[in-house]
């Protein structure tokens, strides 16, 4: 099984790609502008609702709050489902979208992306007692077996093109509205495999009490970015803040906090 530190190392590698900024240039001043940021609150530890406090927390919340502070802006958070989020941001219903959104060329036709702020990989989540397959090739070779996915997500496309046969209508793909519903279906035996970025996968396994595990090798790399309406004047200021947060080690500290120090679902 993969460990949190694997994702931590990847995230650090991305953060380290920016030059250190001991005394960086002054950041743009948004003069107290309100930024309406939409998220799904369904991908711990990036963003989720703490079951103990009821508060929305996570890596992305900490990062966005710091970005807003450095740009002299205020943040108002809203929630939306994944399937509505990209189109809602494209239609300027929200200023920024954040929910571990993979930077993809097809999505760039509808929205603008920030520079990458984290990198992860797709992993395969199965029940702890799964013995029929141990990697993508083994799952594909099964006569039956279902993979859960949200249509239009990177895990969906990975399931179609890297695990199965390239047919987006393959009946072995069972669609769900949320990542959490996929995980519950996996635990209940309604599907046999769920794909996730490493962050969500490790968090789900940690929270499962031994019911789930990760198998096989990671499938590809994903760069995450915030999304904006096409032509948004916020892209450049947010990118400047991302560069500053990478350069002064803030992103490194957030990654340590949320992917190493925070033990989701563990005593």
Annotate the secondary structure layout.
Blueprint lengths: L3 H12 L17 E7 L2 E2 L3 E3 L6 E2 L1 H12 L2 E7 L2 H9 L5 E2 L7 H4 L2 E3 L4 E10 L8 H6 L5 E3 L4 H10 L9 E3 L3 H10 L4 E5 H10 L4 E13 L2 E3 L5 H13 L2 H12 L6
Notes on the protein architecture:
This protein is an alpha/beta fold and 267 residues long. Helix content is 37%, strand content 24%. The chain is built from 10 helices and 13 strands. It has helices at residues 4-15, 59-70, 82-90, 105-108, 136-141, 154-163, 179-188, 198-207, 235-247, 250-261; strands at 33-39, 42-43, 47-49, 56-57, 73-79, 96-97, 111-113, 118-127, 147-149, 173-175, 193-197, 212-224, 227-229. The protein has a 5-stranded mixed sheet with strand order 10-9-11-8-12, sandwiched between helices. Strands 5-1-6 form a 3-stranded parallel sheet, sandwiched between helices. Strands 2-3-4 form a 3-stranded antiparallel sheet. α1 (4-15) packs antiparallel against α10 and α2 (59-70) crosses α9. It is globular.
Indicate the low-confidence ranges by residue numbers. 1-23
**Shape estimate:** globular
How many H/I helices? 10
The N- and C-terminal alpha carbons lie at a distance of 19 Å
Tell me roughly what share of residues is in helical segments: 25-40%
Radius of gyration: 18 Å
Number of strands: 13
Descriptive tags:
267 residues, 37% helix, alpha/beta, five-stranded mixed β-sheet, three-stranded parallel β-sheet, 10 helices
